[in-house]
Each structure stands twice: as structure tokens, then as C-alpha cells.
Amino acid sequence: MNRIGIALFLLLAGLYSFSQKNKIDPAAKFGAYVQNAMKEWKVPGLSIAVVKDGKIVFESGYGVAELGKPDLFTTSTLSICASTTKAMTAVCMGMLVDEGKIKWSDKVSDIYPALKLWDDYASSQITISDLFTHNTGLGNADWLWVTGQPLDTIIYKMRFIKPAYSFRASFIYQNLLYMIAGEVIHKISGKTWDDFIKERLFVPLGMVHTYPTYVLSVNEPSHISPHWMYDDGMVGPIPYIDKKGIDAAGGVWSCAEDMGKWLTFLLDSTKVNGQRLLKAETFKDIFKPHSIVTDEEFYPTQEITKPHWKTYGYGWFQEDYRGNMLQFHTGSLDGVVAIAGLIPDMHFGIYVFANLDHAELRHALMYKAIDLWCFNDNSHDWSNDFSSLYKRLKQKEMKKEAERESKHIMNTLPSKEMSDYEGHYANEVFGSAEVVFHNDSLLLKFPDNIQLNLSHWHYDTFIGRYNYSWYKKSWVQFSLNDMGKISQFEMEGMVYKKTDQSPKIIN
Q1: How open is the CA angle 424-427-431, to the nearest 5 degrees?
Q2: What is the pLDDT of residues 231-283, one digit of tens each?
Q3: Which residues, other chains included, contact 293 with Cβ-Cβ below 8 Å and sequence gap of 6+?
């Protein structure tokens, strides 16, 4: 070996030795990071699964399933996947595409004519693909399922929802069309979405502790309890309220152990025992960008991660991160959160469950895990950055609320006697409401036991405080007709008109 060869050998050996000395143990670093970050965010408990290069490289639970009780939050503790369910529904539809029973380009009106939107053109042109991409013009109408409307009623009422934008012209995240996707799966396969996803996805993957609905999971020994952080910073458990009809959009219950299997399945191009459950083309379709996501509809984390583009696939938000395409999706319901993240080109995936409402620690853990396992980088404190970000957003929200309250006009009285506000009200889309006058105060009642105690603010405006203490207060504005009688109220942009007819469902 000549001198140049010897020098090159020594240089390479030195570089290898240096790299080995500086190679991070990602599992050790990540585990310590999780425990410290949980304190900052006051998260009672969480569980995590990380997959890299076809193996589960990290799987752990932390904290408790419910504050004040000894049960630990383990990798087998069940939590709700919420909207990370959407990606599972997309895979189920993909199976039917592979079987030739349906195409992504098929018109929904030809298969499921019960779906009608406000816009006749959209109703006739909406495709199976459109059910998954949040770009049909339909805005967020979650109040329909929040108030316990039956699924067939929700589907019928969708025709009365005015479009928020022109067909395929923008993006607004919503749940209703994923519910329709579940009904299409039922129509095409002859099996309910619940049965289909269990038989065709959960069983083949060995996800023995994963269930399509909460009701089907009740015999499992360990479930989380949802938690809420109140204005004084205290965290406490709240009841889980099981909402019907949203199964295909966000109903799955599972645990970190099974989510590790789900991530492994996706990162191995949907192979189970060497056999693909989806064809390569269909698998590619699911992760292909289908909609451009607006800044307003993306996550506040973009302020720090600064993605160059933001898109949506079938059940996956997408952005660039460190030169790679990151596929991810959150899940959020009252008191619980989840996040799934994938970088398929780096064979990496992470899933996080947590039992505190909108605990954005989930985002911090996703980016931290990517840095550690994919880039051998432990330099960035995402938890600190996101904590500061969400504190600023909270302060901004509080300032906006203070500005509204500063406009309070003192010493005014309602236009009418309090008893005159009493009666039945109705909204064409969202159904019935009732105002009850009792003990010199007003109670606004909606179906599914949602109630607001109304306190007079000024003139005919009232502040409504929910019986569910974790809901934000709502402003309720009553109006008079030309006869000087109470004719309607407006709340959160919804107008309910007074009617002489009794509502069908009032608790």
C-alpha cells in the first residue's frame, strides 16, 4: 500500500471511529426526553410505538391512565385513535379498489345516491376519491354528530349545508364524508364498516386489542380516562362521551402495541407474512398528494417547522421535513389525543396516544423521534418550542376574548321578559333546541344532553356555559321579529328559529 493509500485508510478509520463515538442511543435519549416533556405539558399518561427499518425499536407507556388512580398507562392500555382512524378507512376502501368492486374515480351518486350536497353539480360529480380529501366545498358541520344525530339523519341533512367554497377549490377539514366512505364500504362489500375493518385489517395484522368502536372494546381490562386542563392549570379527568355514527372517521380504539403493528404494515407496503393487502398502485394512491392544504387549515406547528408545501393524501396530512416527505395525522376528541407519523423513504414510523385534551406534546415527540432515529440528532428541543408556541396562541385567544368582553355594555336589560325567550327552536341542518325558563334563569337544551346555562350579558345577548365544563362558553344572540316577539337565536354561526312545534328529541 502506498503512502496515499495508507493515509486514506487512516482517515476513513478515524472518521468511522469518530462516528461510532458520537452515535446517539435514540431509545435512551428519547425515553428520558419523554419523561421530562410530560412534566412541562402536565400530561397524565401516554404510550408510544416507534418503528424503524421493519422493527419496533421503541415501545413504552408512561404515567397513569387516570389521575388519582394507580392504573398505569401501558402499551396495552386502550385509547381512542380518533381521526387517525381515517387512514385505516382509506386502506379498507383500497382493498375494494383492488378487488375491482369500485374505482377511486367512480361517482358516489352512482353507488350511494343517498348522499346529496347543497350544490347539485357537486352531488353529481363527487367521486370516491373526494370522500377522502376534504375539498368538496363542505365545511365543518361536526355539530350534527356532536348533538347525537343518527347517521341516516346526518346524511340527509348534508344537502342543506351551504358550501364553504366552490367544489374542489379549497380545503376545509371535516368528518362527514369519511362517515359516507364507511357507508360506501358497507354498500359495496355487504359488510358494515365495523365488520369489514375488523375482518380485513385488524385480524390479518394480529391487532387483537383493536376495536372499531368503544362499545366493542369494553371488555378490555385497561382503558384511559380523558383529561382536561382548566384555566387555573389544574388537570382533571372528564367522562368519555361515546358519540355514534363517526366510526369510519374516528371511532377506532387501540393500544401502542397494536399501533406498532399498523405502522410496520404501512412501512412494509401493506405486507402481511410476505403478502400485500394492497396492490402497489393502490398503496401509492393513498400517500399521493390529492389536495393542497391552506395555511389556515394546517397545524400551528408550521410556524416553527416551516414546511415548503402542505398537502393531504387519503387520511394523511403531508409536509416536507429535512428533505423528506412526512405523512402524519392527529386524532383529537374530548380529553384524548393521538398522532401517527411516517417517513416511508426512511422506513420510520411513530404513534403516540395521550390522555389530555389537545396536548401538543404529541407533535414534539414525533419530530424528536424523527431527529433521533433518522438523523442521529439530539439538538432540538421541540417540546420547549411548541410549548412556547401554544402558550402564545393561548394568550392571543385570551386577548381576543378580553377585547370582546371589554365591549360589554353595562346596566342593560333584555328586550322581553325572561319567560318570553322560552320555547322550541329549530335549524334546518342542525335540528332542534329548546329554551326553558326555570328559577329566574334560562336553560338552552340540545339533543344528546348538551345544555347551556344562559346568563344575561347585554340587551338580547347571553353567555352560555355548558353542562360539560370543558366546553368553551358560547355567545347566544336572540332577535325580535317585526311584531316585537322573540323570533330566533344565533350561536356559533348557527341560526335557530323559534317554532310552535315541539322538537323530536330533547333531553
Answers
A1: 80
A2: 888 899 999 989 888 999 999 999 999 999 999 999 999 999 999 999 999 99
A3: 171, 310, 311, 312, 317
Statement to judge: residues 326 and 455 lie in one domain: no
Residues 6+ apart with CB under 8 A from 104: 97, 127, 128, 129, 285
Asked if residue 325 is part of any domain, the answer here is yes
User: CB under 8 Å to 378, separation ≥6 — which residues?
Assistant: 24, 29, 371, 372
Contact 132, 314 (CB under 8 A): yes
In a domain, 16, yes or no: no
Is 350 in the same domain as 291? yes
- The single-letter code of the amino acid at 469 is S
Residue 323 and residue 225 share a domain: yes
In a domain? residue 269: yes
Q: Give the structural domain span for 35.
A: 26-388
Per DSSP, 27 falls in state H
Task: Tell whether pTM > 0.90.
Answer: yes
Distance CA 492, CA 147 (A): 14
Residue carrying the nine cell digits 377522502: 132
Q: Determine the average pLDDT of the residues in 319-328.
A: 98
Q: Which residues, at least 6 apart from 214, have a Cβ–Cβ distance to it below 8 Å?
A: 80, 240, 242, 251, 253
Contact 283, 94 (CB under 8 A): yes
Given the C-alpha cell 387519503, which residue does it identify?
314
State which of 388, 404, 426 marks the end of a domain: 388
Both 139 and 212 in one domain: the answer is yes
Cβ atoms of residues 136 and 127 within 8 Å: no
Q: Report CA torsion sign: 74, 386, 356, 144.
A: negative
SS (H, E, C) 292-356: ECCHHHCCCCHHHHCCCCEEECCCCEEEEECCEEEEEEEEEECCEEEEEEEEHHHCEEEEEEECC
Tens of pLDDT, residues 10-57: 445 444 444 455 799 999 999 999 999 999 999 999 999 999 999 999
Is residue 500 predicted with pLDDT exceeding 80? no
Give the CATH number for residue 64: 3.40.710.10
**Same domain membership, residue 443 and residue 372:** no
Residues shown for the chain: 507
Give the total number of structural domains in the chain. 2
Is there a contact between 260 and 61 (Cβ–Cβ < 8 Å)?
no
* Domain shared by 337 and 464, yes or no: no
Residues 164 and 258 in one domain: yes
Mean pLDDT, all residues of the chain: 94
Is 408 among the domain residues? Answer: no
Burial of 320 (0-12, 13-18, 19+ CB in 10 A): middle
CA distance 175 to 166: 18
Alpha carbons 144 and 86: distance in angstroms, whole number = 19
In angstroms, the CA 111 to CA 163 distance is: 22
